[in-house]
Amino acid sequence: MDRILVAVDGSEPALKAARMAVDIARRFGSKLTLVHVVPRLLLPPDVYGLTIAEVEKEHRAYAATLLDKAEAALDLGGLETNRTVLYGSPAEAIAEEAAAGDVGLVVVGSRGHGAVARMFLGSVSDRLVHISPKPVLVVH
Asked: Are 21 and 81 in contact (CB under 8 A)?
């Protein structure tokens, strides 16, 4: 397993998943890629009073901060890591990134919403399990 992909979104379940991914990467001598997905805008940028470029700049800054915090919270000590910011629908973007030949495992956290909440809110981890071309480990 050359590379492990772990999705981080700033939540505690995602951080828990990242910790597990670090442990697995160490055991298998794998590289670790931290990914954050910037979702599509739900409203036109002018609703926010900003241009598209300004909104994208803010999203990139937020993603960088979030990835910095994730790295700081993890004991990476010598583990080869990189970071990637993806854009689009989270599950689909992660699955597309996972399709790379060197990815052996995708690790994601689950917030533990019940079936009713998943029905209305959707679940990135649930969707990813169904569409990922690579094995997915969901950490609760």
From this structure: no
Type of residue numbered 27 = R
- CATH number of the CATH domain containing 39: 3.40.50.620
Run of H or E residues at 95 = helix 90-98
Cα 25 to Cα 66: distance, rounded to the nearest angstrom: 21
The total number of structural domains in the chain stands at 1
The answer to whether the beta carbons of residues 61 and 36 sit under 8 Å apart is no
Structure pTM?
Answer: 0.88
For 7-20, write each residue's pLDDT tens digit.
Answer: 999 999 999 999 99
Cα three-residue angle 108-83-98, rounded to 5 degrees: 50
Strands of the sheet containing 103-109, edge to edge, are: 81-87, 31-38, 3-7, 103-109, 136-139
| Phi and psi at residue 33, to the nearest 5° | -115, 120
Residue 48 CB coordination number (10 Å): 12
DSSP 17-46: HHHHHHHHHHHHT-EEEEEEEEPPPSS-GG
Domain that holds residue 70: 3-139
